[in-house]
Amino acid sequence: KAGVTQTPRYLIKTRGQQVTLSCSPISGHRSVSWYQQTPGQGLQFLFEYFSETQRNKGNFPGRFSGRQFSNSRSEMNVSTLELGDSALYLCASSLGPNSGNTIYFGEGSWLTVV
Amino acid sequence: KQEVTQIPAALSVPEGENLVLNCSFTDSAIYNLQWFRQDPGKGLTSLLLIQSSQREQTSGRLNASLDKSSGRSTLYIAASQPGDSATYLCAVRGGSNYKLTFGKGTLLTVNP
What is the pLDDT of residue A39? Predict the structure, then answer.
C-alpha cells in the first residue's frame, strides 16, 4: 500500500514568486493536513481538509492557501514568497477527522526561498 | 491554547540502555496522543497512538503511557540501539476542531 506522496521533494524559489506543493494521501484516506516545520518553530499546523472542505486553519497569513480535490489529493500554494517561508512542508493523511484515526506523514517538500 | 512540551530537548545514551522520553501538555481535554519518530530530512513515522481512555500502548521495545489528568505522557524505549537515533515528537489531538498540537521533539542519540 503506497504511503503519502509529496511532490516536489526539493525546490528553490526566489522571493516574490509563488509555489504549489502537491500531496497524494494513502488510498482510502479522505483527510489531509499540512504542516510547516522549521528549526526554530518546530511543526506548525497550516490547514486540514476533509471531503474537499477546509475544516481547520492555523495562524498563517492569507498568502498560504490550499485545496482538496474529489480524489482526496491536495495542493497548497504560497504566494509572494518570503525568505522566512523556507521550511520543510509536510502533508499528512488519515481516514477522516475522527479523533481515533492514526495520522500518516509524507516525506515532505523542502522549500528554499532565496 | 494547548501547549506541548518535551523534555529533554536532546539525550545521548550508550547502546543497550533503557530510556524514557517525556511529553507534557497544558490542556487535559484531549482525544488522543500520538508519538512519532523523525529521521533527519525525512517525514514523521507514527510509533504509537494512545486514546484518551487508555493508559498505555506497547509496540515491540516501545511503551507509551498516558496520564491525562496530570497532562503527561512518557515513551519508554527498552534496550536502545543505534538505529533508534532520531527525533521523537509527541502530538496531542484536542479541542472542538480536533486540532493536532506538536511538541518540539527530543533528539535521541544512541552511541554504539
Answer: 86
Q: Which residues of A touch B51 (CB under 8 A)?
A: 99-100
C-alpha B37/C-alpha B99 separation (Å) is 20
Has residue B96 got a pLDDT over 80?
no
The strand pair at B19-25 and B106-111 is best described as unpaired
Quick one: average pLDDT of A9-17? 97
Measured from the Cβ of residue B89, the count of other Cβ atoms closer than 10 Å reads: 24
Q: Looking at the DSSP assignment, which residues form a beta bridge with residue A102? A: none
| φ and ψ of A16, to 5 deg | 95, -20
Nearest by CB: B97 against A35, A56, A103: A56
pLDDT at residue A1, rounded to an integer: 61
**Residue indicated by cell numbers 499540512:** A34
pLDDT at A49: 94
Cα angle B68, B71, B73; round to 5: 80
Neighbours of A2 (CB within 10 A): 8
CB contact residues (below 8 A), chain A span 7-46, against chain B: 33, 35, 42-43, 45
Query: Strands B72-77 and B19-25: what pairing?
Result: antiparallel
DSSP secondary structure, B10-21, as one string: EEEEETT--EEE
B21-76 residue pLDDT tens = 999 999 999 999 999 999 988 899 999 999 999 999 999 999 999 999 999 999 99
Compute the count of residue pairs across chains A and B with CB atoms less than 8 Å apart. Answer: 50
Q: Is B82 helix (H, G, I), strand (E, B) or coil?
A: helix
